[in-house]
Amino acid sequence: MNAQNPDFGPFDTPALPAPETFDDARAAVARLTAIYEASTAFLSERFAATLRHGRPERRVRAYYPEVRLSTSSFAAADSRLSFGHVTGPGTYSTTITRPHLFQSYLEQQVGLLIRNHGVPVTVGPSRTPIPIHFAVSNDARLSVPQEGAMDFPLRDVFDVPDLATMNDDIVNGDGFLYADGSIPLAPFTAQRVDYSLARLSHYTATDPDHFQNHVLFTNYQFYVEEFEAYARQQLGQEGSGYTAFVGPGNHVITEAEAVLPAPGKMPQMPTYHLKRADGQGITLVNIGVGPSNAKTATDHIAVLRPHAWLMVGHCAGLRNSQRLGDFVLAHAYLREDHVLDDDLPIWVPIPALAEIQIALEKAVEEVTGLDGYELKRIMRTGTVATIDNRNWELRDQSGPVARLSQSRAVALDMESATIAANGFRFRVPYGTLLCVSDKPLHGELKLPGMASDFYRTQVARHLMIGVRAMERLREEPLERIHSRKLRSFAETAFL
User: Fold this and answer.
1) What are the sequence ranges of the domains in the chain?
2) Long-range contacts of 49-55 (CB under 8 A, 24+ apart)
3) Phi/psi of residue 433, nearest 5 degrees
4) Domain AMP nucleoside phosphorylase N-terminal: where (predicted)?
5) Across-strand partners of 384?
6) pLDDT along the chain (495 residues), means of 10
């Protein structure tokens, strides 16, 4: 099909179905899938032909599918539910990518819209072009050459990623509207999702398809070793519900004794997935050390709309009464990491989420065998401070120590507040359980001998607490986990 674009002249597009209304969520998602697959197949075919035969005569373009909902009613949906409904009359829309990856999520969200508002949704092609890089990303036969490798500029023929369309105006609550005046239905645009899926593959060396709905973050490789040991135990246990374990390089094992090949070069954030058939398994991401890594990981994992993410890592204990190996359950965060200052002002409080806190505390009780007053022997609740300077102890301590004392902080690390703040920002339920590995204010530094003994005795127990907390959360109804306290005045209908 030929079309005319005033900016670039005539261009070729695929023949796609006209917009159509649906009152059945599965049928609507099937149409989204058909449009997306037709569009990406068209772009892949034309790109392959361009590589073989050179520059075509016309520009080539295909569009993301979109879903729209229009309502004229002010009728309120069930106020107990934090998602699945729009806030008032208007036309709402969102572009969609990789509908097969998001099939269950889309069917759920579209189904809630239809049921809660009693009106159909409209599915058809959008006016947002699919960048060629994203269209061919799932075609192993094709790769986009670097700029200058071809004898003509790629963007003269195909659409390329446009950073101006991948910002976070929607999730940051900046009053974003689409060019046609429609209101966002979902927290991320299709281009933003595609960008993050590509970044996830790069940073973790695993495909987005492997990510599970419950994500653990850690800052030490020791946790990975324990996670693999637990995964193998579960694969060998009939009825565990876990079906596979995936490591970097997309290496998959389904049997407890199978060999898991190690990639020749580890990615920046090695990631491992203990999978269930329904996607309700557990993903562990070793983000390394620092708030920048924590932000990068959560910026991109957020587009997968996980049901919860938790930080299980090491921290500095700030109280003399703490001992190495004690746990810290964060009830509040002192944010001195600065990486989110432009997106989430420092004056925004990051509340503790009751459902997550209870799951973590119950998991500590289960794994340690302690409860009630006895649990206080090994666990403190309170404020966790996150900073961006690993060697803060080497400077004049009067300023930092005064702030830590005034905040009533009980622990210090470099990732937890970042992960919690981005969870708040992206409406992903979050929590933090840290393990004290040193006490710099009290002369107990993280030295090699002490570290070895600490890691040997504590990591397995700590990792298991995180796993048990996630398994508890898996049993909770989705509407209970996704708390209304994470939603602002005017929210997207999609979770």
Assistant:
1) 2-200, 205-486
2) 50/157, 50/158, 51/142, 54/151, 55/151, 55/152, 55/156, 55/157
3) -130, 115
4) 27-174
5) 333, 411
6) 44 93 98 98 92 90 97 77 87 97 97 94 96 86 68 87 86 89 96 96 95 95 92 95 96 96 90 97 95 96 98 89 89 94 94 95 94 90 88 64 86 95 96 86 55 68 95 90 82 92
DSSP secondary structure of 417-442 = HHHHHHHHHHT--EEEEEEEEEBGGG
What pLDDT shows up at residue 403? 83
| Strands laid side by side in the 121-129 sheet | 20-22, 121-129, 63-71, 90-95, 183-184
Q: Which of 472, 487, 361 is nearest to 428 (CA)?
A: 487
Q: Does domain 2-200 have CATH number 1.10.760.10?
A: no
- Helix H, strand E, coil C: the string for 238-261 is CCCCEEEEEECCCEEECCCCCCCC
Alpha helices (runs of H) in 5-58, residue ranges in sequence order: 25-53
Q: In angstroms, rounded to a whole number, what is the distance separating the alpha carbons of residues 222 and 214?
A: 20
205-486 shares the fold of 2-200: no
Q: Report d(CA 331, CA 322) in Å as an integer.
A: 17
Identify whether the C-beta of residue 97 lies closer than 8 Å to the C-beta of residue 195: no
Tell me the Cα Rg of the chain.
Answer: 24
Q: How far apart are CA 34 and CA 96, in angstroms?
A: 12
- The whole-number pLDDT of residue 7 equals 43
Asked if residues 133 and 147 have their Cβ atoms less than 8 Å apart, the reply is no
Residue with tokens 């397995």: 460
Compute the C-alpha angle 9/12/15, nearest 5°.
135
Instruction: For residues 11 and 13, give the distance between their C-alpha atoms in angstroms, rounded to a whole number.
Output: 7
Local structure of 90: helix, strand or coil: strand
Take residue 26 and report the two structure tokens written for it: 């599965």
The contacts of residue 46 (CB under 8 Å, 6+ apart) are 12, 56, 60, 158
Q: Is the pTM of this model over 0.85?
A: yes
Angle at the Cα of 161 from the Cα atoms of 155 and 167, rounded to 5 degrees: 145
Contact criterion met (CB below 8 Å) for 326 and 379: yes
- Cα–chain center distance at 400: 32
Query: What's the N-to-C CA distance of the chain in angstroms?
Result: 36
Residue 245 confidence (pLDDT): 98
Q: Angle at the Cα of 425 (from 284 to 104), degrees rounded to 5?
A: 60
Q: Which fold has domain 205-486?
A: Rossmann fold (3.40.50)
pLDDT at site 401: 80
Asked if 459 and 74 count as a contact pair (C-beta separation under 8 A), the reply is: no
Query: Is residue 389 classed exposed, middle or buried when 0-12, 13-18 and 19+ CB atoms within 10 A define those classes?
Result: middle
CA dist 162 and 364 (Å) reads 46
Tokens 């005033």 correspond to 6
Cα angle for residues 439, 443, 444 (degrees, 5° grid) = 50
Whole-angstrom Cα distance, residue 473 to residue 354? Answer: 12
Token code pair at residue 93: 């829309």
